[in-house]
Design a protein that fits this description.
With 307 residues, the protein is of the alpha/beta class. The chain has 11 helices and 9 strands. The strands form 2 sheets. The chain has a 6-stranded mixed β-sheet, sandwiched between helices. It has a 3-stranded mixed β-sheet with strand order 1-2-3. Helix 1 packs across helix 8. The longest helix has 20 residues.
Length: 307
């Protein structure tokens, strides 16, 4: 940690917060003052995500680095963030190749975010195979895209998997209801919204986050961040219900606390990002032509928090 980051209240870190499904351990650690217990001085920087009903975020296919979180990071506005594992791999690899601000994968994250493929209640699609050549709305090059491919690749050949952009989570629910797409990929709290509003879950799966950080955050500071998140995971394992309002609030009134399926929440302490995990995830991503080939574990992964 450089001298200019040290304050009277400990190391100063700008920590990203986006959707509760990805960041709940961070939010709990903040609320319960676990970061303070670790001697950290944290500024929490909110970046818009695809789950909030109020987001104006428009997905762009051409450059993931023009999206809000990546733009803020490249501009120095945040130091550490997390998102879907495959998305972090893609961004870390392509940022390195494009000369953008370096980011390393520094851990396998604490949130196993739940995603689902959803169809209309009156749909004739009852199993994944029936989505052959049918449009499935996702957030391109984000978690809903990657997890949809991961879920469905055991049922359909790549040439028969058709994904499209239909906007944010609430926008794609409306597209589904209008019959503009055959299915949509959603994460919580929008899976719970879909169930409440009479849509049908076709299949669902958890997806682990990956943690990313710049080179200027040292190992001990990252370790302290992850210890705080690990304590939050213990709290959530005992009872997540005091924190479901984070999800309910993202829906802008479409859910009440009693409607939210907190049983889908799953968290675990951050862990080192192993070479085996890198090989499996990176090769899978390249196999779907979703990132550049020839990247290496040594250049992209740095487990300094666990050394």
């Amino acid at each position: 940690m450089t001298a200019d980051r040290m304050t009277a209240n400990g190391p100063f870190v700008k920590l990203a917060v986006m959707n509760a499904v990805h960041d709940l351990p961070v939010l709990v650690a903040r609320d319960e003052e676990f970061f303070q217990d670790e001697g950290l001085n944290i500024e929490f920087v909110t970046t818009p995500g695809m789950a909030q009903v109020t987001t104006s975020h428009k997905v762009q296919f051409d450059s993931v680095f023009e999206r809000p979180l990546e733009f803020v990071y490249n501009d120095g506005g945040i130091d550490q963030f997390r998102m879907c594992e495959w998305g972090i791999v893609k961004r870390a690899v392509e940022a390195e190749a494009s000369g953008l601000r370096s980011r390393k994968i520094v851990a396998l994250g604490a949130s196993m975010s739940k995603f689902a493929i959803v169809v209309r209640a009156d749909s004739d699609f009852y199993e994944p195979e029936m989505l052959k050549d049918q449009l499935i709305a996702v957030t391109p090059n984000n978690g809903s895209h990657f997890v949809t491919l991961k879920m469905i690749e055991g049922f359909l050949g790549k040439e028969h998997v058709k994904v499209t952009n239909a906007g944010s989570m609430p926008q794609r629910i409306e597209a589904l209801k209008k019959g503009e797409v055959a299915a949509v990929s959603l994460m919580e709290p929008w899976i719970s919204v879909a169930e409440k509003e009479g849509l049908r879950i076709l299949m669902e799966a958890h997806s682990t986050r990956a943690e990313a950080a710049g080179d200027d955050l040292d190992g001990p500071t990252l370790a302290a961040i992850f210890r705080a998140q690990a304590r939050a995971c213990e709290v959530l394992a005992m009872d997540p219900t005091p924190y479901v309002d984070y999800f309910v609030n993202e829906t802008g009134g479409r859910l009440e606390a009693k409607d939210f399926r907190h049983q889908r929440l799953l968290h675990a302490p951050p862990q080192p990002y192993t070479r085996e995990r890198w090989d499996d995830t990176y090769n899978w991503t390249v196999g779907w032509d979703m990132t550049m080939p020839d990247a290496s574990f040594e250049k992209i992964v740095d487990n300094r928090a666990f050394e």
